[in-house]
Amino acid sequence: MAALFIFGVILKRVLSGIQPSGQLHLGNYFGMMKRMIHYQEENDLFSFIVDYHAMTSIHDGKRLRDNTLNAAMDFLALGMDPEKSTFWIQSDVPQVTELTWILSNVSSVALMERGTSYKDKLAKGLKANMGLFSYPILMAADILLFGGEIVPVGKDQKQHIEMTRDIAVRFNQTYGKVFVVPEPDIDNERQLVPGIDGQKMSKSYNNTIPIFGEEKAIRKKVMSIVTDSTRVDEAKNPDCTLFHIYSLFLNEEETLELEERFATPGTGYGDIKKSLFGKIMDHFQSFREKRTYLENHKDSVYETLRNGAEKASTVAEEYLTRARNAAGLNYKI
Ligand code: ADP
Ligand code: TRP
């Protein structure tokens, strides 16, 4: 039932939730978004911005609202196509919270207590709220409510998918088969994009190169990528942060050319950084224009999101009704 049948080909339902996590950077794009958006070409892609999940860590209404809308505009600007996929904001389909409650009753406390992200937060001395404790049940509801078959996630989310499978099986055994048991699609090959200081690029390390920031700010970040003290008239070692970031934008042949440029004395790091800056601006130019357009046409963004939520709700209603009926929340029939 989850699969879509088009021209005799069965498309798999690929589903993923994305945290609205602040200003977007090259690490997010090359590590996750590009791959995510690509799924829409060959699959029945369901993806959504998980603002309910973000509530477990953001307790500022304005910040959550801004981050959510910005994340949606980022995805749309980078190529998420609402004609090819179903794209919505999690809280626009609130049925997911009802399913979370239903699933809570077949999810054991012990299962939640094994959650590594929950345990990590406790270990760091953070006081966990119930939202954080039952985060995996909301995530299970996200997946099961839409019949997700394949869930692309990073390694850190593997345990959450295993929990979802556990919960789906437990529900189906208790009440009869309602839910699809999903498979994770873990990207083991994903390389970490380094930040300007050489550590993993992350907004928490303040070492990012943003995609949609002001041109001047992006230039400044690129120019401050760490390099060693090799002089202009010496050959340079390509196993370095500048080379790794630059090669994200290059095909095989161009990467070899860059290697050559590093090996040939006469070019300073400053010149290479300037060409990298040009590459970044060229690569993202059309996306940046689209992002500005969306920023100035928010009504069209709201409409796109409303349509996405409507499409998603239709599927949600179907699964939720079956779950309600199976569990006995149907005294009238
Ligand atoms: P940040 O570390 O900046 O807070 P998030 O944790 O919000 O980023 O990550 C959002 C998505 O982007 C995740 O799927 C994550 O795996 C991916 N991602 C973030 N930083 C990188 C990076 N440096 N290299 C590859 N992928 C990354
Ligand atoms: N927990 C995921 C993360 O932090 C986000 C998420 C929420 C998700 N719901 C989901 C991912 C459903 C896949 C499917 O990245």
Describe the fold and architecture.
The protein has 333 residues and is mainly alpha-helical. It contains 14 helices and seven strands. The protein has helices at residues 26-42, 51-54, 61-77, 95-104, 109-113, 116-123, 130-133, 135-144, 158-175, 215-223, 241-247, 252-263, 269-296, 298-327, and strands spanning 4-6, 9-11, 13-18, 44-49, 86-89, 150-153, 183-186. It has a three-stranded parallel beta sheet, sandwiched between helices. The radius of gyration is 22 Å and the shape is elongated. The mean pLDDT is 94. It binds adenosine-5'-diphosphate (ADP) and tryptophan. Residues 15-17, 19, 50, 53, 139, 142-143, 151, 153, 157, 160 line the site of tryptophan.
Percentage beta strand: 5-15%
How many helices? The count is 14
* Main sheet characteristics: 3 strands, parallel
CATH architecture of the largest domain: 3-Layer(aba) Sandwich
Low-confidence stretches: none
Give the CATH class of the largest domain.
Alpha Beta
Structural class: mainly alpha
The ligands found in this model are: adenosine-5'-diphosphate, tryptophan
Strand order in the sheet with the most strands: 3-4-5
Shape designation: elongated
How many β-strand runs?
7
- The CATH homologous superfamily of the largest domain corresponds to HUPs
- The rounded Rg comes to 22 Å
Which fold name is given in CATH as the topology of the largest domain? Rossmann fold
* Overall pLDDT confidence: 94
